[in-house]
Design a protein that fits this description.
The chain is of the alpha/beta class. Helices cover 42% and strands 10% of the residues. The N and C termini lie far apart (107 Å). It is a single-pass type I membrane protein.
């Protein structure tokens, strides 16, 4: 029963898997992974390769090459559990559209405390982390859909600013598995974060995708509240602008009803 459930789940998510894998860097990684084996086993190509085998057969692997391949495969699987049988390269940096404010160690506190009515969703990341690079387009898409005057999105590279990492208790250690971390700030104070951290300083297992971010941080409700805040703030500004006369403008003509009209004489009557 468990095998059938897993098979049906795989078939159900198969279109998403194809969409995820059909990207230039994954295709390039796969081609580079199999290129060495293909060249060594293709007649007409492998015969021209240099070999150190005693029999001079360059189309077969010797024991040294097998050991090197096994060693590299073990290193890749230990470093990245997702790369199980394919040596994948890191995805390229995201360069698409976004509504994100990038902080530094000198500006993050000032921006978070500038306006207590503004809610900030801040991603703590590091450029060397492959998980952060994979999450970058997801966070950018959230900023495009939910950014407004009352709900802002920000990012800070804690790989460069270690003091910020210590202050906000986000570890950059690969063993902690805390990168990337998304923190919600209201009134300059942290309200919640994902992933959560246990007593040992390790991140609690949690899938960092768009659906979970929207659900856990309740972005739909926050966005609606922020829109109401924007409308009320805009109406107040209009009232203030309307009550103050414009400089250099002409004075309004007096109301004819409020001005006392001269009485008619008996002759005119």
């Amino acid at each position: 029963m468990g095998l059938l459930t897993g098979l049906f789940a795989f078939l159900y998510h198969l279109p998403q898997i194809y969409k995820w894998l059909l990207k230039p860097y994954y295709i390039t990684s796969f081609l580079l992974t199999i290129s060495f084996v293909v060249v060594r086993k293709t007649p007409g190509l492998c015969e021209h390769l240099v070999t150190q085998r005693e029999d001079g057969n360059s189309c077969d692997f010797d024991w040294r090459e097998l050991e090197i391949l096994m060693f590299l495969s073990a290193i890749v699987m230990m470093k990245n559990r997702r790369a199980t049988f394919v040596m994948t390269c890191q995805p390229p940096l995201y360069m698409g559209p976004e509504y994100i404010k990038y902080f530094s160690d000198k500006t993050i506190d000032e921006e978070l405390q500038r306006d207590s009515r503004v809610t900030w969703l801040v991603e703590f990341y590091a450029n060397w982390s492959s998980d952060c690079q994979s999450f970058a387009p997801i966070f950018a898409n959230l900023s495009l859909n939910y950014n407004c005057a009352g709900l802002r999105f920000g990012k800070i590279d804690i790989g460069r600013y270690e003091e910020v990492s210590k202050k906000y208790r986000v570890s950059t250690s690969p063993l902690a598995k805390q990168l990337p971390s998304v923190l919600l700030f209201q009134g300059g104070r942290e309200v919640m974060r994902r992933p959560m951290v246990d007593s040992k300083g390790r991140a609690v297992s949690w899938t960092m995708n768009e659906e979970n971010i929207i659900r856990e941080f309740n972005l739909n409700e926050l966005f609606q509240k922020s829109k109401k805040l924007n409308k009320s703030h805009g109406s107040k500004e209009e009232e203030q602008n309307g009550s103050q006369p414009q400089e250099g403008g002409e004075e309004l003509p007096p109301d004819t009803d409020s001005v006392e009209q001269p009485k008619e004489s008996k002759k005119d009557q």
